[in-house]
Structures are given as C-alpha cells and as structure tokens.
Write a structure and sequence with these properties.
alpha+beta; HicA_mRNA_interferase
C-alpha cells in the first residue's frame, strides 16, 4: 500500500468579538490625581502640596528616603495617622486589609495589609508602599510640607 501525503489547511474562523481592550462603549474615568496613560501623575498632583504634622512628615520622609538617610521601622498606627493627616480615611476590611480612601473629590482608594504578628512596617515594605502611592496618587517626597502650627 502506498501512502499519500496530504497537507490539510485549516479554515479561517471569522472574528465576531473584535479587538481586545477598551471598546467604544466603555467608560473610562481619569481622576485628576491618577497617573496618565504614560504612568506619570497628572498636573494637579504635580503642583499640590500636602501639609502634614511633623510626625507625619517623618513617616513620609521614611517612605520616600534620600540616599544618605537612615532607614528604620515605622509603627503601623503611626502610618495610619500619617495617612489620615494626608487626607485619607482608614477602614478595616476583612482580616488584616485596611482600605485608605481619599477624602477629596477624587476619592482614590488603596488597600494595605497591616503587618502581623508585630505591627511594625519594615523599611523595604514602607518603600514598596511609597512606590504604590507614587504610581496611583503621584506622591513623592517633595509633595509633603510641614503644616504651620497656626492652621
């Protein structure tokens, strides 16, 4: 018996769903403080200073350290108070998850997990949290200034 070689070509299937990604009917909301499509904060986030207390300023300086700066742990409660001072509310979700919601009109939201069994945030985790705040809210070290005692 002889075998014949036959190449079978598959039939092209017509696409019925279109391209993946945003469709014309999708609603996309870009908040003023959210990063742009290129990952950079929008103009509002770049020019707005956040006035905080001396204790909160210390937390944010540890979150966005200079090269020469000594790094150290931060107590969870101190971090939560700093976030509240910067204009967020803190709400416990399930387990160790704590949702921080911005009080301003933008209303951005981010979730951090409370460290356990010890409530201290180590410097590496604090930097990671800072990078997330930079990405979603445009935060950086220069954004935080000391609040006057009179206000």
């Amino acid at each position: 018996m002889s075998r014949s070689s036959k190449i079978v070509t598959r039939r092209e299937k017509a696409k019925t769903r279109g391209e993946q990604g945003a469709s014309p009917g999708d609603i996309i909301e870009l908040r003023d403080n959210a990063p742009s499509a290129h990952g950079e904060p929008t103009e509002l986030a770049k020019g707005t200073a956040i006035r905080v207390t001396r204790q909160s300023l210390g937390v944010f300086q540890l979150m966005f350290p200079d090269r020469d700066e000594v790094v150290k742990d931060v107590l969870w409660d101190r971090f939560v108070h700093a976030m509240i001072d910067a204009g967020f509310t803190a709400r416990n979700n399930s387990g160790s998850a704590v949702a921080f919601k911005q009080l301003s009109r933008e209303g951005g939201r981010i979730v951090f997990h409370k460290p356990h069994p010890v409530d201290k945030i180590d410097p590496v985790l604090l930097r990671i949290m800072g990078k997330r705040m930079s990405r979603w809210f445009g935060w950086r070290r220069e954004l935080f200034v000391l609040r006057d005692k009179t206000t």
